[in-house]
């Protein structure tokens, strides 16, 4: 009868830690390698529960592409008990990983389409895996465009990777307020979307960021003629089990941890606003 | 005796004149004889008000609730709230005043006398009536309750079914009010700490056994805390996370919140919870007995608070809730205070 | 399998079950509670219902998931902890509480299986006692697809026929238990079957409370998410956990790490009951809370039971046991709330 114990994390070693953002809300990117298992296969947009034993577990989006098999990557903002403790960890430290959890972006259905990625702040992390995956299978997709912004240039994550990315796809960056030396767009991400006017023709927009940004991005996309089912986003709620049992992350009948976190706007707008 | 009509008249008047924003009182419940708390802002609804020996709830908790709501309200309506208070409830008001949690202007107190008796203990009543369904219970003269069941009415001596707290009540009449209904009837209480003394009389071993059994039952629903008007802290020692989180609260601050009490509902954690609560209520508990009434597992929580009350009285001659201007028990010092317990 | 067991033979049957850990309702102080019993004589089946449903045995309030610690050479060690292997029998389970387990089964084994719940469930036989009279004045099982003699979730259902029990086995596990008491059970006579049918029919009529047209409630709730109704109904709510912790169908939980020793580092990861009425249940680390007030939390409790669960599993997540009504400190009455929802607007 015994199936896998869904609450038992797999141990993993942190193999690389990179500072992304400093300041009051620092962000670090962690790469971790499972100690024993190698067949951890996730889909774009899926999450995992990361354990610091003695502190607890938190759910994070896996930001590495499913095509990368050597490690799992998480970009984590220092927020509370578990994340503070993760931020104080060093390479070779052991964490626990449970997953992959949740649904994923329907990337197979998007073949042949133009993909527009729209992120704000740490919100680039949950869409990074799908962006990397699409890049890896570039011939399957149309144009790839990234519109990404943060409060200041210091708050942008994956800065080096973004420069690399410019060689392969269109990248539009923005900062909220004017700053010295900034040559790109100044203003909020939704304004940048309006400014760059991506065409809805045969396109899918994937957005993640602070709730208020997502709200206005969806509005901006709507104004540009995007239909509700052409817009995808990810939702966040407090989670514990990650498998749709513990009952706290629900939005209506949906458990975000299991039925989400990925939703098209067409699906999400039908649900009560409880996130 | 309290005349319900007088109470309703006053309620209508203060609502109509806009003197109060709403009235917290008792109304008939959907089913059964137990009334429920009600919140009346429309004078038309005053008709729903009721007053009888089953009006057990200490409604002052809802004043605390309102205070918390007002704090978050950008355009708060600061008019007073009308509230029906029994003797014990009025002492809770005094403690809230003493602790400056509320101002006297925040409330318009409609005092009601418990007459010679007090309120009923639902479980005792059920036992006395051996399963007969109660439809209505009323005050009667001469210390009786008139109990109407499905099979008729009968007089029951109040003392047989009275809530434990009422048996030991020293003030069955409001100590603070704006208007009061019913007569002040002096009642002799010879042994105000009799209940707790039965526990004190046990040997240390038996006492430990008693509390071990009782506190082991706790499921940590926190109803005792939720119902207590003195448990108004924004954040309690048992809460797992900080509630006072602002957008700029640092991660460290959140991460370093001490877990005083683990979530495991085992004996050690349960003891820490209940003793912490008892200590925090020393010199503050007015013995409304609500914590014990609401406990689904029948843990005699009131004993813990009663013990604090007794020690405060015996060691420091301190009584709770009679004077909103007296310095509080734990933050005041007198030269004659005993100190032999300091080792 | 249908049998008759004389009440005087009941203790003899229980004696034969010595390989099992046996739970039964026991009166403690003023309340009934399911406890492990040592002798057959401790079983009391003349009782209303326990304050806490037998869910506390199948889904205990505290469940250890794993043990963690650091060894002498500072290596982190994580060890899985599973429930103890044993055979359990629970006597005296009321139909509402047994049905509740079948609802929790849906959640704990939707497609991802919870081994802890699954194991305890599998190794536990549920022996029911039909309600000849409603155990609580607030019983309303017949309004929510239940009945005082519903067989859902039972291995064996007993019905009190005065000096005998009518014994109906519903599973192989039930048959095995009856076979252990071979010789004590006899086949029911025709008149006993008739008697049973009459008792069952009468019992249904004795329920005092009901929710009419309950099927109208889920679609109605769907339109009421933004309604001011929830503010009104929740005014007196104290945000305690009684309604959910005593509910036989509520199953929400928390997972947390408890460190028992700092040096050497050692502790447990545990599951504990949690509930939607506590403000920290949904509060994000940022301080944002999607359910910031008691109105939204009462709405969640009602909607989960009468809309979301129906949408997901096609059952009401409520078996009409009436505990949340009887024990609510301020008399919030789910029957009343549901009736108002049905008639709202």
CATH topology of the largest domain in chain A: Rossmann fold
Largest sheet of chain A: 7 strands, mixed
Quantity of strands of chain A, as a count? 15
Determine the oligomeric state from the structure.
Answer: heterotrimer
Would you write up a description of this structure?
The complex is a heterotrimer of chains A (275), B (343) and C (345). Chain A is an alpha/beta fold and 275 residues long. Helices cover 19% and strands 31% of the residues of chain A. Chain A is globular, with a radius of gyration of 18 Å. Chain A starts with 9 loop residues before the first strand and ends in a 7-residue tail after the last helix. Chain B is an alpha/beta fold and 343 residues long. Chain B has one domain. In chain B, helix 7 (194-200) packs across helix 13. The mean pLDDT of chain B is 93. Chain C folds into two domains: 2-60 and 83-205, no CATH class; 214-253 and 275-342, no CATH class. In chain C, 31% of the residues lie in helices and 22% in strands. Chain C has helices at 10-16, 55-58, 95-108, 115-122, 172-180, 190-205, 217-222, 229-233, 242-246, 294-313, 323-327, 334-342, and strands at residues 2-6, 21-28, 31-36, 62-70, 76-80, 88-93, 124-129, 156-160, 164-169, 185-186, 253-261, 266-273. Chains in contact: A-B, A-C, B-C.
Question: What's the SSE blueprint?
Answer:
The complex is a heterotrimer of chains A (275), B (343) and C (345).
Chain A: E1 10-21, E2 27-34, E3 47-52, E4 56-61, E5 72-77, H1 81-87, E6 94-101, E7 114-120, H2 125-136, E8 144-150, H3 159-165, E9 170-175, E10 185-186, H4 189-196, E11 203-208, H5 211-223, E12 231-234, E13 250-251, E14 254-255, E15 262-264, H6 265-268
Parallel strand pairs in A: 7-8, 7-11, 8-9, 9-10, 11-12
Antiparallel strand pairs in A: 1-2, 1-6, 2-5, 3-4, 3-6, 12-15, 13-14
Chain B: H1 4-16, E1 23-27, E2 36-40, H2 61-72, E3 81-85, H3 87-98, E4 107-112, H4 122-129, E5 134-139, E6 144-149, E7 152-157, H5 158-161, H6 164-167, E8 179-181, H7 194-200, H8 204-216, H9 223-227, H10 251-255, H11 267-280, H12 290-294, H13 302-316
Parallel strand pairs in B: 1-3, 3-4, 4-8
Antiparallel strand pairs in B: 1-2, 5-6, 6-7
Helix pairs in contact in B: 7-13
Chain C: E1 2-6, H1 10-16, E2 21-28, E3 31-36, H2 55-58, E4 62-70, E5 76-80, E6 88-93, H3 95-108, H4 115-122, E7 124-129, E8 156-160, E9 164-169, H5 172-180, E10 185-186, H6 190-205, H7 217-222, H8 229-233, H9 242-246, E11 253-261, E12 266-273, H10 294-313, H11 323-327, H12 334-342
Parallel strand pairs in C: 2-6, 6-7, 7-8
Antiparallel strand pairs in C: 1-9, 1-10, 2-3, 4-5, 4-12, 8-9, 11-12
């Amino acid at each position: 009868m015994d199936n896998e114990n869904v609450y038992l994390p797999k141990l993993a070693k942190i193999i690389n830690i990179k500072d992304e953002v400093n300041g009051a809300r620092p962000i670090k990117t962690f790469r971790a390698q499972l100690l024993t298992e190698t067949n951890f296969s996730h889909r774009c947009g899926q999450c995992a529960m990361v354990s610091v034993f003695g502190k607890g577990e938190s759910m994070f989006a896996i930001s590495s592409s499913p095509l990368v098999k050597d490690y799992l990557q998480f970009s984590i903002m220092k927020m509370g008990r578990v994340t503070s403790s993760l931020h104080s960890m060093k390479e070779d430290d052991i964490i626990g990983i449970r997953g992959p959890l949740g649904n994923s972006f329907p990337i197979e259905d998007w073949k042949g389409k133009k993909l527009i990625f729209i992120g704000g702040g740490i919100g680039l992390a949950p869409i990074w895996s799908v962006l990397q995956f699409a890049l890896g299978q570039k011939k399957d997709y149309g144009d790839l465009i990234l519109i990404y912004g943060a409060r200041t240039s210091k708050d942008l994550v994956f800065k080096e990777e973004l420069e690399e990315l410019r060689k392969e796809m269109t990248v539009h960056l923005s900062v909220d307020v004017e700053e010295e030396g900034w040559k790109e767009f100044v203003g909020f991400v939704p304004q940048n979307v309006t400014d760059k006017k991506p065409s809805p023709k045969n396109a899918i927009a994937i957005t993640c960021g602070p709730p208020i940004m997502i709200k206005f991005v969806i509005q901006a996309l709507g104004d540009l003629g995007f239909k509700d089912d052409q817009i995808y986003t990810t939702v966040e709620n407090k989670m514990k089990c990650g498998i749709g049992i513990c009952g706290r992350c629900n939005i209506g009948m949906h458990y975000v941890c299991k039925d989400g976190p990925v939703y098209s706007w067409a699906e999400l707008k039908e649900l009560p606003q409880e996130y | 005796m309290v005349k319900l009509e007088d109470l309703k008249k006053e309620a209508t008047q203060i609502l109509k004149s806009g003197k109060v924003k709403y009235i917290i009182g008792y109304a008939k419940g959907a089913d059964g004889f137990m009334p429920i708390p009600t919140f009346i802002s429309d004078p038309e609804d005053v008709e729903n008000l009721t007053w009888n020996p089953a009006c057990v709830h200490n409604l002052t908790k809802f004043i605390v609730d309102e205070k918390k709501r007002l704090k978050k309200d950008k355009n708060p309506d600061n008019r007073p709230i009308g509230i029906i208070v029994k003797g014990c409830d009025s002492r809770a008001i005094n403690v809230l005043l003493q602790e400056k949690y509320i101002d006297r202007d925040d409330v318009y107190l409609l005092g009601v006398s418990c007459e010679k008796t007090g309120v009923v203990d639902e479980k005792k009543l059920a036992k006395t009536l051996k399963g007969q369904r109660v439809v209505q219970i009323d005050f009667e003269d001469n210390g009786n309750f008139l109990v109407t069941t499905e099979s008729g009415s009968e007089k029951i001596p109040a003392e047989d079914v009275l809530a434990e707290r009422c048996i030991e009540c020293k003030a069955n009449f409001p100590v603070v009010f704006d208007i009061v209904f019913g007569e002040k009837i002096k009642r002799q209480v010879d042994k105000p700490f009799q209940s707790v003394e039965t526990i004190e009389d046990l040997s240390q071993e038996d006492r430990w056994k008693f509390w071990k059994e009782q506190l082991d039952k706790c499921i940590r629903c926190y109803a005792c805390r939720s119902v207590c008007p003195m448990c108004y802290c924004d954040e309690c020692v048992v809460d797992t996370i900080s509630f006072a989180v602002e957008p700029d609260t640092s991660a460290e601050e959140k991460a370093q919140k001490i877990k005083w009490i683990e979530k495991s509902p085992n004996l050690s954690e349960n003891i820490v919870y209940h003793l912490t609560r008892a200590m925090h209520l020393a010199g503050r508990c007015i013995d409304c007995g609500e914590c014990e009434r609401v406990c689904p597992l029948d843990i005699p929580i009131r004993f813990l608070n009663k013990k604090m009350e007794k020690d405060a009285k015996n060691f420091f001659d301190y009584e709770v809730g009679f004077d909103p201007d007296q310095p509080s028990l734990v933050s005041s010092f007198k030269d004659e205070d005993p100190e032999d317990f300091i080792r | 399998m249908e049998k008759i067991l004389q009440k005087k033979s009941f203790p003899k049957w229980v004696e034969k079950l010595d390989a099992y850990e046996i739970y039964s309702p026991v009166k403690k102080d003023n309340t009934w509670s399911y406890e492990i019993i040592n002798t057959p004589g401790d079983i009391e089946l003349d009782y209303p219902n326990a304050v806490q449903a037998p869910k506390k045995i199948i889904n205990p309030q505290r469940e250890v998931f794993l043990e963690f610690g650091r060894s002498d050479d500072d290596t982190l060690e994580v060890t899985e902890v599973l429930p103890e292997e044993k055979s359990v029998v629970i006597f005296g389970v009321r139909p509402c509480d047994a049905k509740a387990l079948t609802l929790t089964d849906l959640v704990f084994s939707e497609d991802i299986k919870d081994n802890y719940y699954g194991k305890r469930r599998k190794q536990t036989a549920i022996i029911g006692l039909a309600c000849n009279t409603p155990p609580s004045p607030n019983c309303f099982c017949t309004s929510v697809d239940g009945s005082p003699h519903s067989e859902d979730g039972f291995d064996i259902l007993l019905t009190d026929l005065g000096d005998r029990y009518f014994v109906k086995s519903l599973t192989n596990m039930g048959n095995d238990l009856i076979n252990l008491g071979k010789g004590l059970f006899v086949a029911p006579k025709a008149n006993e079957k008739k008697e049973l049918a009459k008792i069952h029919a009468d019992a249904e009529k004795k329920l005092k409370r009901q929710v009419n047209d309950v099927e109208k409630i889920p679609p109605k709730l769907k339109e009421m998410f933004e309604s001011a109704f929830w503010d009104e109904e929740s005014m007196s709510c104290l945000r305690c956990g009684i309604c959910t912790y005593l509910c036989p169908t509520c199953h929400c939980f928390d997972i947390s790490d408890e460190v028992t020793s700092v040096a050497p580092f050692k502790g447990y990861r545990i599951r504990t009951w949690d509930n939607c009425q506590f403000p920290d249940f949904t509060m994000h680390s940022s301080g944002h809370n999607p359910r910031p007030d008691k109105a939204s939390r009462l709405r969640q409790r009602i909607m989960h039971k009468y809309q979301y669960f129906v949408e997901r599993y096609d059952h009401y997540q409520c078996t009409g046991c009436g505990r949340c009504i009887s024990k609510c400190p301020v008399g919030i009455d789910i029957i009343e709330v549901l009736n108002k929802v049905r008639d709202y607007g």
